[in-house]
Amino acid sequence: MHVLAAPDKFRGSLTAIEVAAAIARGVSQAGGTCTQLPLADGGEGTLDAFGGSNQHTLVTGPSGYPVHAAWRLEPCGRAIIEMARTSGLELAGGPTNNDPITATTRGVGELIATALRAGAQRIIVGMGGSATTDGGSGAIRALEESGLPTHVIRDAQVLVCCDVRTPFAMDAEVFGPQKGASPEQVVLLTKRLRRLQTEYQDKCGADLTNLPGAGAAGGLAGGLAAMGADLVHGFDLIANEAGLQSSLPGADLVITGEGQLDAGSFNGKVVGGICHMARRHGKPVLAIVGSRVDDAAEDLTHVSLLDTYGHDRAWFDTAACIEHAVSDHLHQAEPIAAWG
Question: Could you report the per-residue pLDDT of 210-219, keeping only the tens digit for each?
Fold first, then answer.
């Protein structure tokens, strides 16, 4: 049996690269072969999905303090940036320590400017994990103050990976509380986003009102779109760049996974995307997940590490649990059925 290992990260436990490696070890124990294809939905983990080595640049963090942000510039002129590495909620100390009013995306703009100066011709910016709700104003200000000619910024191909479709002005209402915003602050942030939406329309001619995904990362996606960036579906872009389409035909089984399987897993996330593409190719899918919430994906063959191995092993020996779960399933007499 040849297996395609195409997982997402297990947040707080393993990167997608580490999950794919654990799957491959389990496949090997069962006598199979494996192609490793770690993926992401365009949020945290985007850098890992592309592989390779990172470089680091000192930029402004979400709270205004400097941070060393990892990013990548490849020989082909493609740069990969994760906004969470410059303006992420974890960098701000989590929702308890984050100031949702002042949290800034300035570091994202600084990193885009750095990539452009270094010769990047195509910049992929991953959204997700943000501390910010500044509508991208910090990033735009940094680009305007970078000293780069306007045409260099406007002519660059910037692809913004979105895994949500939230409208620009609604982001604070939907995601503000997760970033530590009180009900009163949500009202203030929403007013600010509406004001910025009008400013982007007046200054850039960009109507963000009904642009799907413009609210991603606290409106950063919309701000970059106003500057000429294209908003794209994160999973589709990364899967295409990683070569998922060409890897599927030769696989007898696709094994994917993520930390928590829930209804959101099938709304722009890796597991849902894998299931959709595998169905088109008639390939069976096995999902290895940390845990399962509610009745998510009852028709998807899956293993919950929490249910199978208990809390401690699932959390602190995750890779070994994944390896064992894969090997155990592949040793079963009856093969997993393909999608109908």
Answer: 999 999 999 9
* Contact between residue 247 and residue 281 where contact means Cβ atoms under 8 Å apart: no
Write down the residue that tokens 């969470």 correspond to.
84
What are 38-52's pLDDT values in tens digits? Answer: 999 988 889 988 878
Q: What is the pTM of this model?
A: 0.89
Looking at the chain, the domain(s) classified CATH 3.90.1510.10 span 46-235
Quick count: other Cβ atoms within 10 Å of Cβ 75?
5
**Contact residues for 151 (Cβ-Cβ < 8 A; gap 6+):** none
The dihedral built from the CA positions of residue 257, 260, 262 and 267, taken in this order, carries a sign that is: negative
Confirm or reject CATH 3.60.110.10 for domain 2-37+244-330, answering yes or no.
no
Q: Which residues contact 269 (CB under 8 A, 6 or more apart)?
A: 8, 41, 163, 235, 258
CA 313/CA 181 separation, integer angstroms = 34
Q: What is the CATH number of domain 46-235?
A: 3.90.1510.10
Rg from Cα positions in the chain? 20
Domain with CATH 3.40.50.10350 in the chain: 2-37+244-330
